[in-house]
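Example S7 (structure tokens).
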């Protein structure tokens, strides 16, 4: 097993003024650790990196095909999107197809990251809607599952709802955990969020990476979700999102999804490998540098791909006058004798 140490530092000129320490687990589908930092089993929240697996029962039971959803719609159901016009169009399309209004979404409203949408909303606040929430695609998919199964739409975010009970069982299965052992809390969009070891998250991404389109129903569903995310990386995030940039820089080679509080998960289909990377203090600013550096250290990133990701690998720090005064940079060390 490769043993790593990952540290991200923020420098201002020659001065190091902040540090962020990361934990990593790189796992095979059967749960074997291929690479790790010193705490690969640290328990934390799966946050939005869980979205492909929250969607899994819907695809696995054939409902995506039943409703005729294409891969871009599947991708936005796995998304933490920026609220762009295209994202809104995709989510509206899902809701129209299942006969549900936008106000059925229980994710709440927050201002979008997309500059055009943000300017439009600030000019006309009456347009505010849960559609702009970065989780609206996931919630539209959850509503679609309720419609397909004949479950009540009301209360679909409750842990006691049949949908959330099924998602919890599925989450246990893909992460290799007893569903009853998964810790529960409330996510930013009001659905249950799961607490589990980082290695379990990596195992789920290994299964996502390794799934065969010709396998059983679960593998076929995982393969479809993976291919949808890789084919439509902008639908799963958008401009400025690291996960989107990573998939765009590695077309067809990596599948990625981030989560709040400094989490990034990556699947490597060619290696049947899943990685989960977590900033101990939850700082999002270090995720890009840490992930790029870790992938590079493990030999999973090509030189041209690393070049394409430079703005995420080493973001610059500017001051209020627009002057470049520093950078955010990662240092990854591999224990002696541990390299593969």
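Recovered sequence:
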């Amino acid at each position: 097993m490769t043993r790593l140490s990952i540290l991200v530092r923020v420098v201002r000129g020659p001065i190091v003024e902040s540090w962020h320490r990361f934990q990593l687990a790189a796992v095979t589908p059967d749960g074997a650790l291929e690479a790790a930092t010193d705490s690969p089993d640290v328990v934390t929240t799966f946050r939005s990196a869980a979205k492909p697996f929250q969607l899994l029962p819907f695809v696995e039971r054939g409902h995506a095909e039943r409703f005729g959803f294409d891969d871009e719609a599947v991708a936005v159901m796995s998304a933490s999107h920026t609220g762009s016009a295209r994202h809104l169009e995709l989510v509206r399309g899902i809701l129209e197809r299942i006969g549900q209004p936008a106000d059925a979404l229980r994710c709440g409203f927050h201002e979008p990251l997309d500059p055009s949408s943000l300017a439009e909303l600030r000019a006309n606040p009456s347009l505010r809607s849960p559609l702009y929430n970065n989780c609206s695609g996931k919630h539209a998919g959850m509503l679609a599952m309720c419609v397909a199964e004949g479950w009540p739409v009301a209360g679909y975010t409750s842990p006691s709802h049949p949908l959330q009970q099924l998602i919890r069982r599925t989450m246990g299965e893909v992460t290799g955990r007893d569903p009853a052992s998964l810790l529960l809390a409330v996510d930013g969009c009001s659905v249950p969020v799961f607490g589990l070891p980082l290695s379990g998250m990596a195992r789920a991404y290994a299964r996502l990476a390794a799934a065969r389109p010709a396998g059983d129903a679960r593998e076929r569903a995982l393969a479809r979700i993976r291919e949808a995310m890789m084919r439509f990386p902008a639908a799963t995030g958008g401009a400025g999102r690291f996960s989107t940039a990573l998939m765009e820089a590695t077309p067809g080679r990596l599948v990625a999804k981030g989560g709040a509080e400094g989490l990034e998960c990556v699947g490597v289909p060619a290696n049947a490998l899943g990685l989960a990377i977590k900033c101990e203090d939850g700082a999002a600013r270090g995720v890009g540098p840490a992930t790029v550096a870790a992938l590079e250290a493990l030999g999973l990133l090509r030189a041209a791909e690393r070049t394409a990701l430079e703005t995420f690998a080493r973001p610059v720090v500017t001051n209020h006058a627009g002057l470049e005064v520093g950078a955010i940079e990662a240092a990854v060390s591999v224990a002696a004798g541990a390299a593969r």
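Notes on this example. The longest strand covers residues 15-27.
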